[in-house]
């Protein structure tokens, strides 16, 4: 479909030796859409989408004009049709959609038609990340054992998806053991500026042209929002909406209110992006942003990496927004280069964003927003969130006091210091003991600064003779193989191993409740004695019962703090003043003794997080390991259903 181009804004953009068709926002402003240069960047992406898809049926001229009217009112009850560039799925919610496509092929064949005509009309990537469970942990064999167990339990599903990848065009499957869909999206799939070939007539010339436009997507997982940190507009939708988008149908949505979140200053020494996102989540929950876009702006953005921004964007579902958007800037280009994107793509992103007024600099005027919040990054302090809501941020010194309060108010029990025996073990358990400590989730494992921070803290702790308390189930499940590579190359994985954080898999694991069972005797002691046990994880949700049925108090924390609480073994200590443990020299060890400096962390990031490892790990991303290659599937236009399948 060629846009009607009512605002005569279709132009040619030359990047090096290549030429692209694009729909110019500055030209549209000159031709009648007054004031749109001050729109929020996220709204400019929506506007470009409408200009490019104007057909007088799903997208009318009045819909485009409504965006300009939004500028005056900053809120407008007007429905538009949004066409995302692509669709992202994970295996838990994505398999039913692929089953529907396969069933449509069966129906087409039964009607005497060509089944091979049934395909997604926009690119679809399905990342298998929801199936790995932490059944094994605590040693170097845990990863291999968990992978073996995963394939045993999911053989039929994986065979079906392998068939689907061969049978459907416009459909790719990222195999199990690769990573978490949102981190793989950030590191590899997303392009910031998308291109596709399209037949159209420009002037007197009819032919196939390459069109450039902002990358955008919807996904079958709520944390699809993470990629907004790379200036890619996207959010999670239901399965039916995702299938509609796959088949080329637009998604109906109201023009959103856009909440501007102004960031100034810089994070202080010892403060992480996790502390920042927990602060932002608390503030936005209080503001009320459900159904709204949030867009971040201000000088503070110059002090945040794309990984930091993506951590904030990831938790949009927790602060209630449709998305948390960051515009293209110099950091975006740097990340695209570091993560191994082609130099031609990076050049296109820069030139396109600048031509469209989508490139933010320190001199860019602030956009116009519906309402604005402000935060000085220097005001952020080390924090956790818990014991049962992501917005329940608590400063590190107040965690133990907060747990004491929760024992009375939430759990109706006294924190009496009583310890209970554990059958066959030489330790006992009490209220507040940490029984799960998990470095998990794309929220934080996509951020090298906090992963390397955790590794350096582990190195310092191991040097003093500390290791995780014996009742803690520890795990490290990165969101991509890139993380494992830079941890191994830097030697930090060995240090994490020493304190108990061995690699257990590449996938969502504990963050989605795939923490696996606790050791039977620990579970029995907890349930027999009514112990309010705790979990500390670097995830994004901590609702009671989500992480483990045996754990009532769940805390979200940065990876370094996850390691620290594993060493301490309890949330009843105030880690800002109390010793974490006793060193091999018999002296108390405090958190300040083992916490790495920002300078140390940055030096490791610069040395070990390189484009070489991104290119290496994503070179054969769709190939899969030997387990997947052993799975046989039939090359056929329709799936051969197993009628005895349960």
UniProtKB/TrEMBL annotation:
Q: What CDD domains does the record point to?
A: AcnA_IRP (cd01586)
Tell me which Pfam families the record gives: Aconitase
Name the coenzymes or cofactors required: [4Fe-4S] cluster
What this protein catalyses is: citrate = D-threo-isocitrate
Q: In which pathway does it act?
A: Carbohydrate metabolism; tricarboxylic acid cycle
**Domain Aconitase/3-isopropylmalate dehydratase large subunit alpha/beta/alpha, chain residue ranges per copy:** 77-569
List the molecular function annotations (GO) for this entry: 4 iron, 4 sulfur cluster binding; aconitate hydratase activity; metal ion binding; RNA binding
Q: One of this protein's GO BP terms?
A: tricarboxylic acid cycle
Query: Per the record's keyword annotation, is Transmembrane included, yes or no?
Result: no
- What parts of the sequence cross the membrane? none
Question: Which keywords does this Swiss-Prot/TrEMBL entry list?
Answer: 4Fe-4S, Iron, Iron-sulfur, Lyase, Metal-binding, RNA-binding, Tricarboxylic acid cycle
Its Enzyme Commission number(s) read 4.2.1.3
Q: What does this protein do?
A: Involved in the catabolism of short chain fatty acids (SCFA) via the tricarboxylic acid (TCA)(acetyl degradation route) and probably the 2-methylcitrate cycle I (propionate degradation route). Catalyzes the reversible isomerization of citrate to isocitrate via cis-aconitate. Could catalyze the hydration of 2-methyl-cis-aconitate to yield (2R,3S)-2-methylisocitrate. The apo form of AcnA functions as a RNA-binding regulatory protein.
Under the heading NCBIfam families, the entry gives: aconitase_1, PRK09277.1, PRK12881.1
What does the sequence similarity comment in the record state about its family?
A: Belongs to the aconitase/IPM isomerase family.
The record's subunit annotation is: Monomer.
Q: Under what name is this protein listed?
A: Aconitate hydratase
Record the organism. Answer: Rhodopseudomonas palustris
